[in-house]
Amino acid sequence: PIHLSIRNVSKTYANGVQALSHINLEIPPGMYGLLGPNGAGKSTLMRTLATLQEPDAGSIHLGDIDVLRQKEEVRQTLGYLPQEFGVYPKVSAEEMLDYFAVLKGITQRASRKEVTEGLLKQTNLWDKRKQKLGGFSGGMKQRFGVAVALLGNPKLLIVDEPTAGLDPAERVRFLNLLSEVGENSVVLLSTHIVEDVSELCTNMAIINKGQILLQANTQEAVMNL
Ligand code: ADP
Ligand code: ADP
């Protein structure tokens, strides 16, 4: 099992906003919740971990990978579901997932078929596979996003505010899917919804104004709230 270690990470944007200030987090395998209000710095941290932007300072290690220096290695073992996950409306789920699988380097048709079938079943989209993504509900789109993020069997899955806009039934279904994934990797969930964390995450941190206010076992943290 892999471990994610974030040391002294800071980021100030060109407009002077300090989005991250000396972030230190030790993230064990399993479901980990990053809880904070809008503007707290969650997306900045998620994008930094996903190697999509550079911090001004600090270091990040995923197992023995130096995340800020070994970007290709990180990308091989990372799944990232961004807050705004765009899909091509006119393509079927099956076709789109197959296409992403090619991009992920699964070039053999037979293994691609096996992998995409497994993921469509895991995300409960197998019977929807011929439907065009444009007709998918918000919850179906998010589950499809997880299927894409899980291509290549990542050791770290990052999901940024995934439950925003889901109806209650879809939300439960989506969170259950994440918790299954969390059984054998690090799943980092960013959210402003306390229940997303309290219902699902073993460990958690609270972030506000770019600073970590608390890092704890969720049960202990909730008892002290
Ligand atoms: P960096 O310092 O990482 O290069 P910049 O401050 O140059 O970031 O901004 C990068 C992009 O984000 C720009 O296109 C900018 O318009 C946009 N941006 C600026 N302010 C915000 C904000 N508050 N929230 C989201 N995006 C923003
Ligand atoms: P959260 O995901 O918790 O809502 P963000 O990481 O998106 O927080 O934003 C943290 C702070 O940085 C906010 O004040 C936001 O306006 C600002 N910000 C985010 N992206 C940019 C950007 N590209 N350029 C300038 N400021 C930004």
Low-confidence stretches: none
Overall radius of gyration: 17 Å
Q: What's the number of helices? A: 8
Derived structural class: alpha/beta
| Beta-strand percent range | 25-35%
For the largest sheet, list the strands in their spatial order.
Answer: 6-7-8-3-9-10
Order of helices and strands: EEEHEEHEHHHEHEHEEH
Assign a percent range to the helix content: 25-40%
Instruction: Kindly report the average pLDDT value.
Output: 93
Ligand set: adenosine-5'-diphosphate
How many DSSP E strands? 10
N/C terminus separation:
30 Å
Largest sheet: 6 strands, mixed
Shape: globular
Summarize the structure.
It comes from Nibribacter koreensis. The protein contains eight helices and ten strands.
Could you walk me through the main structural features you see in this protein, from its secondary elements to its overall organization?
By secondary structure, this protein is α/β, with parallel strands linked by helices. It has 8 helices and 10 strands. A 6-stranded mixed beta sheet has the order 6-7-8-3-9-10, sandwiched between helices. Strands 2-1-4-5 form a 4-stranded antiparallel beta sheet. The mean pLDDT is 93. One adenosine-5'-diphosphate (ADP) is lined by residues 13-15, 53.
What are its keywords?
four-stranded antiparallel sheet, alpha/beta, 225 residues, binds adenosine-5'-diphosphate, globular, six-stranded mixed sheet
Task: Break the fold down into its secondary structure elements and pairings.
Blueprint: E1 4-12, E2 18-27, E3 30-35, H1 42-49, E4 57-62, E5 65-66, H2 71-76, E6 78-81, H3 93-103, H4 109-122, H5 138-149, E7 156-160, H6 168-181, E8 186-191, H7 194-200, E9 203-208, E10 211-217, H8 218-224
Parallel strand pairs: 3-8, 3-9, 6-7, 7-8
Antiparallel strand pairs: 1-2, 1-4, 4-5, 9-10
Helix pairs in contact: 3-4, 5-6
The structure holds adenosine-5'-diphosphate (2 copies).
